[in-house]
């Protein structure tokens, strides 16, 4: 019976076909969108890498300008040799720089002198200006802005003497830099030395004279295209053909401002891609801000075949359609047969169900197999892309016959240059090393080799390191056919090892050798001295007042100062000398003597003069001096193992002599140092052993002649050293911090003694106690004062705290607050040794002071030195105008006493009346009611 043709699908087959197609399309769209999302994410990451590389290049250019500006900002004249030397290293490091300029502001009346100076440097030079027709002599103008310094001169001769004051792009950038105090970039301009290039721009920073007037500006001429190219090339992002970069010197994608384009612009790339139900991720535009100007960076992805990135979704779609058609055909066939042979439905139902289950299982297994295959293929591709290895083969003569695995891209060396050559032919120096000779011996012995490392120069002239492994290949007869193996680029690892080695032996902040490398250099210098019989000097250099810079300007300014000093030390010494940073603000220099360069103290003075040059920290100018100790080897008392230690001892002696000085070490200094150690050791136990005593010097009222107060002065009664004067131990106590405990003991003991005398019926006197710098800065000062007054029961009005001017001059505002809180306790406050510090009258009016004490150095010569007499008279008048009492210290003669009385001084203390006395002798003085003779009528008339 003939078969009837199929006219229509059954309902079940139609549903199977529609549902299968819908599910396949849905899965296809979902997976496709996931693939597009992955592509978009990968593109964003690659785009950010290029933007970051360009941004870092801009930052490096601005940093170079800032360093160059520091050369001119200290106000001194910069020689052209120094300028050339300074910029030459920067030009070698940054090849995108066309030139370094210093552009000076010149008035019309100074033009002739200025042109004469330029002609002295380069005969025939005149002031020129750029016009659309080219360079021409500069016409008379009221003011010029002329390029005075230019490096390198070769190739930039046209810029020397060029007046850029009429260049709106340069002057606009200068105005911007002056207004915000930051480096400013000009618009793209045409250079006098390269009139056909229009991708250059200037980075400009103004330079001011000491009065704040515009002296000129520094400028770095940047080749914009080269800057961008080197930034991308340095990050390894320039030669990639899967992504395009376009950089514009502006906010808009104007072809006139295009610096560099590695392919189609972002707009062209975007229109060239075929959208397929996805967001646009093939192009990005980012605007950076650098040098006060916007810089637009367009990044676009290169078009890719659709199949290359969507294999999974297409495979899923095709597989789904095939499965759907197969299922539809099966369902349709089953339906037709069911209509024809309904009588067999029951018998075949179970068979059909089993067939369907097997089919579903087969389909699931197929899907799993396809997915596993897809994942395996994806892993293989990722491993191949991520691997840094390549594969090579050599013939029996050890000549390369094949190199695969992207060797050219990974190594930077063209494959064609290696084929037909042996390894030692394209690495000429390989056989000069032990490892190279061992490698050749193994190959000649037909042995395997591993981890052979060698250095090559790639096609761009860069140094690279390779590591290779190889195995010999033999035929069935055992005859050598050649070698095969793998290789990889280990340059990054080698550079990292070099950086780690450098960091381990150099100071991170200044780049100078650290302690480790210093000891090695010192050993070499001593060995040279022993061989040659010539001297070696070790200088220990310590900055004066460095703590003041840190406290007043912050640690960042301190770091800038340390970097500046390090550079000055290097420049003031020879290249053969070693300069190292020891710790903090301490540096060590090792100087070796040579036949044509004898060592002399003038070298040390040259170092001190270099350090003492002014330093600009922010907008402030600082003068920082240094103290230097010098130890000489070989010399008496100085061994090679103690050179740095002896230089340190000499440095401390230089600081004691008033800082800004240098001292050569002598054996006697070591004895003094040991004496200081003995004093410090004994001082730590002095309080516990009750070895301190107080002496009291009376303070006498000059009108009544009566004792009205006393100053408590500490003495140390050591059982072995005897009575130790304060000059031997107070400085040590201040440095070690023991002065805080000692000062608290003095305060409590003086208060208790004064209270005991008052309770015994003696006159009510005030006792003056000196406060050290460490005590003034202690956080528990107020609590200590309150405790001493409360525990002893002394009236606060009977206690006077003596402070020196230097205690609170460094930070006035917190000092004023602390003095007011001390005054609130009821005690009296006095300024000791007034006139020897740095007080200003405006500060003095803010302090809650009761008494000024005139320093003994002024009182000693008031009767025969007009200057000292005038100072004393002025201090008395100033104090009385501020409603303050005046005490004169160190009064030793009747003439001094009469002079002070005649000038209206309130009180005195000194040897003329009494020296400082122990407590029991001072008590007898009070009980005897000893007093100064009252002045005769009309004798002491204040003037």
Task: Give structural notes.
This protein is 45% helix and 23% strand. The protein has 943 residues and is α+β, with helices and mostly antiparallel strands. It has an eight-stranded mixed β-barrel with strand order 24-25-27-28-29-30-31-32, surrounded by four helices. Strand 28, helix 24 and strand 29 form a beta-alpha-beta unit. Helix 8 (311-340) runs antiparallel to helix 9 (345-386) and helix 19 (667-686) crosses helix 20 (726-736). The longest helix has 63 residues, at 11-73.
Sequence-ordered SSE layout with sheet pairings:
Blueprint: H1 11-73, H2 80-93, E1 97-107, H3 111-121, E2 128-131, E3 134-137, E4 143-151, H4 168-180, E5 184-185, E6 200-208, E7 214-223, H5 224-234, E8 243-248, E9 258-261, H6 266-272, E10 283-290, E11 293-301, H7 306-309, H8 311-340, H9 345-386, E12 389-394, E13 400-404, H10 407-411, H11 423-426, H12 434-444, E14 449-457, E15 463-474, E16 480-489, H13 491-505, H14 515-532, E17 536-543, H15 546-553, H16 555-572, E18 578-583, E19 586-592, H17 601-611, E20 615-617, E21 620-622, E22 626-633, H18 643-656, E23 662-664, H19 667-686, E24 692-701, E25 707-718, E26 722-724, H20 726-736, H21 739-759, E27 766-770, H22 773-777, H23 781-792, E28 799-804, H24 812-823, E29 828-834, H25 841-846, E30 851-854, H26 856-859, H27 866-881, E31 885-889, H28 894-902, E32 907-909, E33 917-918, H29 919-927
Parallel strand pairs: 22-23, 25-27, 27-28, 28-29, 29-30, 30-31, 31-32
Antiparallel strand pairs: 1-4, 1-7, 2-3, 5-6, 6-7, 8-9, 8-11, 10-11, 12-13, 12-16, 14-15, 15-16, 17-19, 17-22, 18-19, 20-21, 24-25, 24-32, 24-33, 25-26
């Amino acid at each position: 019976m003939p078969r009837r043709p199929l006219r229509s699908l059954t309902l079940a087959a139609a549903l199977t076909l529609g549902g299968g197609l819908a599910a396949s399309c849905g899965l296809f769209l979902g997976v496709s969108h996931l693939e597009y999302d992955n592509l978009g994410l990968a593109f964003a990451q690659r785009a950010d890498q290029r933007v970051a590389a360009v941004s870092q290049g801009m930052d490096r250019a601005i940093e170079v300008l800032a360093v160059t500006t520091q050369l001119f900002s200290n106000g001194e004249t910069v020689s052209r040799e120094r300028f050339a030397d300074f910029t030459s290293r920067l030009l070698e490091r940054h090849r995108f720089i066309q030139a370094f300029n210093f552009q000076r502001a010149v008035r019309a009346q100074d033009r002739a002198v200025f042109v004469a100076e330029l002609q002295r440097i380069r005969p025939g030079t005149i002031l020129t200006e750029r016009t659309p027709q080219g360079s021409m002599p500069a016409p008379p103008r009221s003011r010029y802005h002329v390029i005075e310094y230019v490096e390198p001169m070769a190739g930039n001769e046209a810029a020397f003497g060029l007046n850029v004051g009429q260049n709106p792009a340069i002057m606009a950038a200068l105005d911007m830099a002056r207004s915000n105090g930051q480096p400013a970039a000009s618009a793209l301009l045409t250079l006098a030395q390269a009139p056909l290039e229009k991708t250059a721009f200037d980075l400009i920073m103004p330079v001011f004279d000491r009065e704040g007037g515009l002296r000129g500006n520094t400028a770095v001429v940047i080749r914009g295209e080269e800057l961008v190219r080197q930034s991308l090339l340095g990050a390894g992002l320039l030669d990639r053909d899967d992504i395009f970069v376009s950089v514009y010197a502006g906010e808009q994608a104007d072809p006139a401002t295009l610096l560099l384009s590695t392919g189609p612009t972002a707009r062209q790339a975007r229109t060239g891609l075929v959208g397929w139900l996805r967001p646009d991720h093939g192009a990005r535009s980012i605007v950076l801000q650098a040098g006060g100007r916007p810089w637009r960076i367009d990044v676009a992805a290169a078009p890719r075949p659709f199949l290359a990135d969507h294999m999974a979704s297409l495979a899923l779609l095709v597989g789904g359609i095939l499965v759907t058609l197969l299922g539809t055909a099966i369902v349709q066939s089953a339906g037709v047969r069911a209509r024809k042979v309904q009588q067999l439905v029951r018998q075949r139902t179970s068979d059909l169900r089993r067939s369907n289950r097997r089919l579903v299982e087969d389909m699931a297994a197929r899907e799993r197999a396809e997915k596993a295959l897809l994942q395996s293929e994806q892993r293989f591709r990722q491993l191949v892309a991520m691997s840094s290895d390549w594969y090579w083969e050599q013939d029996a003569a050890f000549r390369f016959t094949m190199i695969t695995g992207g060797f050219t891209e990974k190594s930077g060396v063209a494959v064609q240059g290696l084929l037909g050559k042996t390894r030692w032919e394209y690495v000429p120096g390989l056989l000069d090393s032990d490892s190279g000779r061992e490698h050749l011996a193994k190959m000649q012995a037909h042995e395997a080799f591993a981890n052979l490392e060698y250095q090559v120069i790639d096609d761009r002239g860069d140094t690279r390191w390779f590591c290779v492994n190889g195995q010999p290949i033999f035929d069935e007869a055992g005859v050598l056919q050649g070698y095969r193996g793998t290789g990889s680029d280990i340059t990054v690892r080698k550079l990292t090892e070099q950086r780690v080695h450098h960091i381990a032996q150099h100071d991170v902040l200044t780049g100078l050798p650290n302690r480790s490398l210093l000891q090695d250099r010192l050993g070499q210098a001593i060995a040279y001295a022993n061989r040659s019989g010539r001297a070696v000097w070790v200088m220990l250099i310590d900055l004066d007042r460095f703590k003041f810079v840190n406290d007043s300007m912050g640690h960042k300014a301190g770091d800038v100062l340390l970097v500046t000093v390090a550079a000055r030390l290097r420049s003031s010494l020879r290249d053969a000398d070693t300069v190292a940073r020891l710790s903090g603000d301490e540096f060590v220099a090792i100087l070796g003597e040579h036949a044509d360069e004898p060592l002399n103290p003038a070298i040390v003075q040259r170092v001190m003069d270099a350090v003492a040059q002014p330093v600009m920290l922010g907008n402030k100018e600082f003068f920082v001096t240094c103290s230097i100790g010098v130890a000489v080897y070989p010399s008496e008392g100085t061994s090679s193992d103690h050179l740095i230690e002896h230089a340190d001892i000499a440095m401390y002696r230089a600081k004691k002599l008033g800082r800004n000085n240098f001292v050569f070490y002598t054996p006697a200094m070591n004895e003094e140092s040991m004496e200081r150690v003995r004093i410090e050791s004994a001082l730590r136990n002095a309080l516990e052993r009750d070895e301190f005593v107080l002496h009291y010097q009376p303070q006498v009222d000059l009108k009544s002649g009566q004792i009205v107060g006393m100053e408590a002065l500490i003495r140390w009664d050591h059982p072995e050293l005897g009575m130790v004067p304060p000059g031997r131990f107070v400085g040590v106590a201040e440095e070690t911090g023991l002065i805080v405990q000692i000062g608290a003991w003095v305060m409590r003991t003086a208060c208790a003694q004064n209270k005991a005398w008052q309770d015994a019926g003696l006159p009510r006197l005030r006792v003056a106690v000196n406060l050290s710098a460490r005590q003034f800065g202690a956080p528990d000062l107020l609590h200590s004062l309150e405790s001493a007054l409360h525990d002893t029961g002394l009236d606060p009005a009977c206690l006077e705290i003596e402070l020196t001017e230097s205690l609170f001059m460094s930070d006035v505002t917190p000092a004023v607050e602390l003095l007011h809180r001390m005054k609130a306790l009821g005690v009296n406050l006095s300024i000791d040794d007034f006139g020897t510090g740095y007080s200003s009258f405006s500060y003095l009016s803010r302090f809650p002071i009761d008494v000024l004490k005139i320093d003994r150095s002024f009182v000693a010569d008031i009767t025969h030195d007009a200057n000292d007499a005038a100072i004393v008279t002025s201090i008395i008048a100033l104090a009385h105008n501020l409603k303050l009492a005046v005490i004169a210290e160190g009064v030793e003669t009747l003439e001094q006493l009469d002079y002070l009385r005649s000038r209206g001084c309130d009180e005195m203390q000194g040897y003329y009346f009494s020296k400082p006395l122990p407590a029991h002798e001072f008590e007898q003085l009070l009980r005897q009611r000893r007093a100064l003779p009252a002045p005769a009528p009309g004798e002491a008339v204040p003037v």
